[in-house]
Amino acid sequence: MDTDGVQTVSSIEQRRVERDVSNIFTHLRDSRNIAGEGVRLLKEKHLSYLTHGIRHLSSSFDCLDASRPWLCYWIVHSMTLLGRDVTGELSRDVVDFLKRCQSPCGGFGGGPGQLPHLAPTYAAVLALCAIGTEEAYSAIDRPGLQRFLYLCHQNDGSFIMHQDGEVDIRGAYCALVAAMLTNTLTTDLFLATAGWVSSCQTYEGGFSAVPGTEAHGGYTFCGFAAAVLLKATKLVDMRSLMRWICRKQMKLEGGFQGRTNKLVDGCYSFWQGGVFPLIYHTLKERGDTSLDCELWMFNQEALQEYILYCCQSPHGGLIDKPGKMRDFYHTCYCLSGLSVAQHCYGTSNTVTISLDPETVLKPTHPVYNIRMDKVKDAHGYFSELPVPQLVHDSTVS
Hints:
- By secondary structure, the chain is mainly alpha-helical.
- It contains 16 helices and no strands.
- Helix 2 (43-53) runs antiparallel to helix 3 (68-81).
- The radius of gyration is 21 Å and the shape is globular.
- 49% of the residues are buried.
């Protein structure tokens, strides 16, 4: 990096990360090339970490008591990307637990008896669709879910996350995913939402939590994915978005940063990387003749190198960056980003830097972030059910 001769806390940290990553690249690339092994995914170790975690969590996870459907989603989705479906007794236990997180008034809370909230609602719906059994699908109270989504919808098109809660762009995306996957969408459920989402695009080109704040990788994914689901990408300044997001891939590390002048982080492998297939297909639908190949607009090999060399814990699980601890959140989004970097959607082509076929993951859906076949199965199941038509109340409890 070029500091222009002025050191700051941020520049010192950036230099440290670049040094750590450079050392890993030099050591592992050289040693594996000499041995003829190449880089590989520690698939069985990751599966062991995930299968243990879904049953047994230490007391250090107490701080995530209000995020338990997220833990289910992160673990189940990661397992399915690695080719291990959640079946049998484990499937039944996860479904039973998520049913207990469901509010009698609709939507899911962060745990049994907790306030319904759009974020764990999104996570629970995705986890149940990733399991993909009839028992999992039927666990969702679709009329209650629709009622909850109506209650979160605001007159300006935005969504509050829960009763008396904050508004941010995650709410619109989470609500759209839940409604689209479960066939609870109605003509008035997302009135004015497209315009509100587009107003969150910043002068930099990314999207912010609410209008007038800083562009951020996670919010950018939520905003653009919401625009895709709403068929409202014409409201997005595509040139500005592409300029911003392409510049978020770090030159040395190969991974993505989430905001301008921030450090690389493995989770943005999906939050930033997952936007590129959506951009590609948006431009393709518009008839852009410059798109002559099924490759994304970032260095897919460089992202794979960052994830496989720098983000794998030798004991299983994936991490933010060298020196960090493994966790289920980063395991999920590093694997999701790796899947995006490997697959060219719409073709059978894959892009991989590994000689080991076990390193190629199952393709994840770039809008929903569960496996492509799981999305297809969920749409097939719920499309056979009628859309609930409710007279909705004015309060959530």
